[in-house]
Amino acid sequence: MKEQHVALKTLNTFGIEVFANELYTFHNVDELISILKEIKDTPNLILGGGSNILFTKNCDVPLLLNRIKGISIDFEDENSITLKVGAGEVWHELVLYCIENNYAGLENLSLIPGRVGASPMQNIGAYGVEVKDLIVKVEAIDKKSLQLIYFTNSECEFAYRESVFKRKYKDKFVITHVYFKLSKNPKINTSYGAIEAELQKNGITQPTIKDVSNAVINIRQSKLPDPNIIGNAGSFFKNPTITIDLLQKIIINYPDIPHFKLEAETYKIPAGWLIENAGWKGKTYDCYGVHKNQALVLVNYGGATGKQIIDLSQAIIDDIKDKFSIELEREVNVF
Ligand code: EPU
Q: Is 145 designated active site?
């Protein structure tokens, strides 16, 4: 289906008021192939849930909206089940489907906005789990050859909020289905402190995957703004990795800086802590600003432009560089 001059406000969770010259919606692989044939080699943009994009201008290239649905069983044995899921399925609806059927693995990733196709793209993660731990393979269409290609887990080259689809093969493939291997014998993961505390608060000692999901939902709702109410795209920045030398220098002035050891004498630092300690948390400019409960999230209270948000993010990047000698990297895709 092709539409012209389409308002994108409700198709991006930041709620930025821009337009697409041409919007094509596809519901299956054949429709996608016909659209790709029609637009030939014209550069284009694929949109799923619009929850990790900041539009700074109207979309002047064909915009392709992925609405491939369907959840089916690809493989099943006593201990596990592999689901083939359409890239246009709403992420949280998939999580709820799994919980209802007692398929474990995705519960820590409850309530993440967006659609299934974006999950391998940026290796979504939260509360101690990354989706790379559950993905078996990814089906995608090569935009040029129109061939259906399968990427195994290792071929996706997953890393923290990274994959081949975001780097090496950026704009080269359209993800059409994702295969998730889930467990029928739940291994509950409450290693992330906040989950344990939330369960204890509710007196739960033997949590089910539904309990874990509810705990995650409560934590998210207390910290993160609901994009249906306040425009945002979740974490705007990635958590940076720094060397032990730099950490030791920062600790002199900031002995409380949280830091998590990675391999090779490097440490992950919560960007939210840096932004808060640089004084940005809760800052508001007319209709946009930094969220009051989680400094990693930039928000649009209604009517902000993408340019205003990007300028704010740049001011934060410059200030953090100045104060901590750390270069923050944006997590959100900018168009
Ligand atoms: N912190 C602050 N101030 C803040 C925010 C955080 O000091 O305003 C510090 C605190 O020390 C806190 C620590 O940062 O203990 C970690 O905070 P939180 O648990 O909120 O997690 P995060 O590192 O800020 C990451 C993900 C989130 C994910 C949470 C939970 C990234 C870029 N973000 O945030 O993902 O929900 O962990 O696992 O890795 C997203 O990607 O859109 C997203 C929301």
A: no
